[in-house]
Amino acid sequence: MRADSVSAPVKEAPGDGPLRHLVARIAAAAPGALAIQGLDGARMTFADLSARADELAAEIPAGARRVAVAMLNDVDSVARLVAAWSTGASAVLLGGLLPDREAERRVHESHADAVLGRQGITPGLAPGESPAEEDEALVVFTSGTTGRPKGAVLSFNALSRSLLGIARGSGLPDAGRLPTAPPRLASPVFTPLAHMGGSLAVLSTWYTGKPVLMVPKFDVQVALRLVDEFGVNVLKLTPAMVYDLAHLPERRSLAGVRSVAVGTAGIPDATREAFEERFGIPVLRNYGQTEFSGAIAFERIEDVRAGRRPVATVGRVAPGVEVRIVDPQGNDLPAGEAGEIVARGGGSMNGYLGSDGRPVSPGPQGWLHTGDLGVLDADGFLSVLGRVREMILCGGFNVYPAVVEAALNRLDGIKDSAVAGAPDPRLGEVPVAVIVPDGPPPTVDQLRAALREELAPYEIPRRIVFDTTLPRTANGKIDRPGVLRRVDTPAAG
Fold this sequence. Notes:
Layout: E1 4-6, H1 16-20, H2 22-29, E2 34-38, E3 43-45, H3 46-57, E4 66-71, H4 75-86, E5 90-95, H5 100-109, E6 114-116, E7 136-141, E8 151-155, H6 156-169, E9 187-189, H7 196-207, E10 212-214, H8 220-230, E11 234-237, H9 239-246, E12 259-262, H10 269-279, E13 283-289, E14 294-298, H11 301-305, E15 313-317, E16 321-326, E17 339-345, E18 351-353, E19 359-360, E20 368-376, E21 381-387, E22 392-394, E23 397-399, H12 401-409, E24 414-424, E25 428-437, H13 444-451, E26 463-466, H14 480-487
Parallel strand pairs: 2-10, 4-5, 4-6, 5-7, 9-10, 11-12, 12-13, 25-26
Antiparallel strand pairs: 1-16, 2-3, 7-8, 8-18, 13-14, 14-15, 15-21, 16-17, 17-20, 18-19, 20-21, 22-23, 24-25
């Protein structure tokens, strides 16, 4: 049996033209429809946003084909993206807080021939010299958890298909409708616009007919106010945001919120369960990559309500996406067996930036090797166990950090945990852990005794340290090298 899942193809993808000119199209059809509102009360209709984009487009040199765009979580950043697209160029997303040296590296590595919104950074090419293709929409640099960030090149067609697949798979039959005035329920965007998740959140919000609430930085009290004031019915959050809401000291309500979608990084079961118990709102995991224009798989609310939730599941494969689980030689593995997740579909990137600025194909026949370990069960549910390089080979046994973390987080007195593989002269690698306790920490011996009820001996962490936080990357993911640095101390358990 081949452990793959082929979902129904997505039809009627809007294609290049409508998405590139989405804002202008909405402005022409519904100029008074609200596009964005800021926390300061500033409001911008689609007509306003289109006009502002036209002003910014005048700053882009004629003939530019790839424009590096500074992206903070504000209205003008969105207008810069729209401006670049309106001139026929693609956009290279630059985090507004990037150091100058890193921003300049990304501008030059992407062969951008114009820069918008970032002072002191100049392109290395004359306008018109960039190798960007006509259908190119975005260059988004990955988080770099496995090395130096690389630029993924995404087409308009890939973005369109991803947006449509997410909307249809989420049960939104009116996907692609134009926003109206007065607006439908607004959707806040908390995640950084320079990341795929943030930009996709803006586009998907418009794509389902809603205005965007632009939030510069997540704050629990701000999130609660927005839910009350705007009747928000869906929240898109990171695991850390869910944790903050679940551990509010005072009693508060999220009345009107139907579900919470969580991406960016794996959310511990304990955090998800604490939130769901407190608010009675399902937390829906999703799994995607920048290289895939967003979602590869996501939980459906009907599955969650029916209790269909395997361990570490990220739900079912998204419409229009194929997933296989393969061994290190690329051979298909049977259902239920762990291996690398490979995927292909209409949302896949054109490739990573090559040295000449052109995309290098992601793999044979369009299959993208995600670098993630996973299991696809016989019912079509995908579970993610961590990165391939994060798998710990302990004395010939495979240890998956996500499995060990899930066992730790189920124990009383444990708030969160992170596991990594430390070198061992005899066994090759052994699991070690950083743990955030919930109150007075248990002893290491107590922890190990409890874990023996759930884990095999080789899965139990050999060294354990307690801390107030977990080491995380800027994108919210567990920093595995950071785990090793914290554990590698004389005080380690």
